[in-house]
Amino acid sequence: xxxxxxxxxxxxxxxxxxxxxxxxxxxxxxxxxxxxxxxxxxxxxxxxxxxxxxxxxxxxxxxxxxxxxxxxxxxxxxxxxxxxxxxxxxxxxxxxxxxxxxxxxxxxxxxxxxxxxxxxxxxxxxxxxxxxxxxxxxxxxxxxxxxxxxxxxxxxxxxxxxxxxxxxxxxxxxxxxxxxxxxxxxxxxxxxxxxxxxxxxxxxxxxxxxxxxxxxxxxxxxxxxxxxxxxxxxxxxxxxxxxxxxxxxxxxxxxxxxxx
Length: 260
Description:
alpha/beta; Rossmann fold; 2 domains; 8-stranded mixed β-sheet; 13 strands; globular
């Protein structure tokens, strides 16, 4: 029987700045599992982006695509996609305002165009850029979208899109883009879906994060842990603030709660 479920964000949390997982963090994850606990990746990334990380960490339970896809011990339990008509309207608006966008699904992604911002983004996350494929949204159920915008213009553009599309939530945690998902989907909704599985009834829950898109987890877990490098809002909301992602924050947080 699972003693506790521990959710981990990736960038700035489980991962170091170079997108690797530190050796002491990997050992901590192994110790966490050995103690009868379940580590879970809770991320905006989709399943196809997580294959290598799942092998490295041994984590095979996921809240992916900001709650769009729920996997328990390798078994996909829940899938939720953005409404196609909403995708079409947002894509058309981005094009009309002169912004490139990316469309993401569980098994891949595509771009509407290539520019300096798209190139910078994929270099930053150490990924090969998706192909340009304007017809992609018509052939795939989408989990999320990115709209590429310069860092100093992002908040203003986020406000414009939020006014035009109140059914969407927008996050600015990259210097190259804003990330959008449907408001009905979030890490919180994904965690609820996972914890509704009968195998996990009544377990104690913890979540580690660093960004504003981790804040919804506060509403569904027992203890929220902010990394030392977290956003001001995340630091304020946390039950415990651990060290940063470059100085053993995961290990220190797990030890604080007696999980390892």
